Give the backbone structure.
Amino acid sequence: MIQSFGVYVDTWLVCSATAFSVLLTGEYSIGGELTGVSLVQQSLASVYGTWAPSVLALIVFLFAFSSIVGNYFYGEINITFFEGDK
């Protein structure tokens, strides 16, 4: 249940907040050179200053690292379950 709720939190809150921040700063242009994380970094830099892209890079790294650690933990638990009690 927690994983299912996490998908909704990520999709509705994080992705929507990211999209709105890009659209409201006016940095998005159709056919522009910037896409993805680069576009978000540029949008945040236009509002918060030059330190914002570094903070966003750190946040993305921590999210990726915590996802790897969490999935490793899930794998360990599943392996233990399938091996049974010894």
Remarks:
- The chain has a mean pLDDT of 87.
- Residues 52-83 form the longest helix (32 residues).
